[in-house]
Design goal:
about 230 residues; alpha+beta; five-stranded antiparallel beta sheet; 6 helices; 10 strands
């Protein structure tokens, strides 16, 4: 009779966390920033079809890093949850906090389940309010932990290096052009040799509180991103 090797729960959780972190670090970083009129999501993503940044609901946006099929499943689940809650109650009852709690429970359950691998994803959920002080941004990690973000946040890739650049160059209250430019520069400083990122390699989505339509999310075109980069320089 063969005997199974014993692995302590602490070691098992450590191994699962290391596995998830390595998978997430292989991709490029995603940045979320508050700006004068709302919240901007900026990602290095040359693909025109596989989005890292998306809309969830009227005032709620979503950004992710890691395995595309895994965070796409989470995005779709979030859209369905938001639609059901808005239909059953009121559209104002759909909040980023409720979605973040739901995502945290899902990611935490998957991370703790012994029969499947943890998700190799991290996600941002942001909700734009009528005033900047009431904007909500949450970061969710592979194990279901939730963090409240103020100002800016970075996940995936060489996030510490990118975050260090933003700490020095980001200022509250920046306009959209300036915030896109500083995010692009930060994404290019993810190694010892800084890179200049072209507009076509950036994916940018914003939640704008001043937009007259109920849906506040807008995907910024390559031409507009290029104009923002040129304005900043």
């Amino acid at each position: 009779m063969t005997q199974q090797f014993y692995v302590s729960p602490e070691q098992l959780m450590k191994d699962r966390a290391d596995f998830a972190r390595k998978g997430i670090s292989r991709g490029r970083s995603v940045i979320v920033l508050q700006y004068a009129d709302g919240i901007a999501f900026v990602a290095e993503n040359p693909s025109q079809a596989l989005h890292k940044v998306s809309e969830i609901y009227d005032r709620i946006g979503f950004a992710a890093v890691g395995r595309y099929n895994e965070f796409e499943n989470l995005r779709i689940a979030g859209v369905r949850l938001a639609d059901m809650r808005g239909y059953a109650y009121d559209r104002r009852d759909v909040t980023a906090r409720a979605l973040a709690n739901a995502y945290a429970q899902t990611l935490g359950a998957i991370f703790s389940a012994a029969g499947e691998k943890p998700y190799e994803v991290e996600i941002f959920v942001g909700e734009v309010a009528d005033t900047a002080e009431n904007d909500q941004i949450y970061r969710l990690t592979y194990d279901g932990q939730v963090a409240d973000i103020q100002g800016f946040g970075v996940m995936g890739g060489q996030s510490e290096t990118v975050e260090s650049y933003l700490t020095e160059h980001y200022e509250p209250g920046l306009g959209l052009d300036a915030v896109i430019a500083v995010a692009a520069a930060a994404l290019g400083h993810d190694s010892e040799q800084p890179r200049t990122l072209a507009a076509a390699s950036l994916e940018v989505g914003v939640l704008t509180r001043t937009r007259s339509q109920p849906r506040k999310f807008t995907r910024i075109s390559d031409a507009s991103v290029e104009a923002s980069l040129a304005t900043a320089t």
